[in-house]
# Entry
Amino acid sequence: CGYAPYIAQANCGIVVSGPYVQDSLNRALLKLLNDEKYRIQCSNNAKHFADTQDLYSMIDKATNLILNQSK
# Structure
C-alpha cells in the first residue's frame, strides 16, 4: 500500500511484502497480538514519526502542483 514505506521507515509496524502469502500475514498478526512490548515500541515510533515528518501537507502540495501545471 502507499503507506508501507512510511511504516518501514518509522519502524512502527510490520510490512508484509508481496505477493500476498497468507502465512506471512498470519505471522505478522501473531507477533502484533502476542508481543505487547513490540506493540508499545511501534506505537511510540509511530507517534514520533508523525510528530517529526511532514505527512499531512502532501494533498495540498499535489493540488498546487496540478493547478500550477494547468496555467
Notes: The chain has four helices and no strands. The mean pLDDT is 92. Helices lie at 4-10, 22-34, 36-52, 58-69.
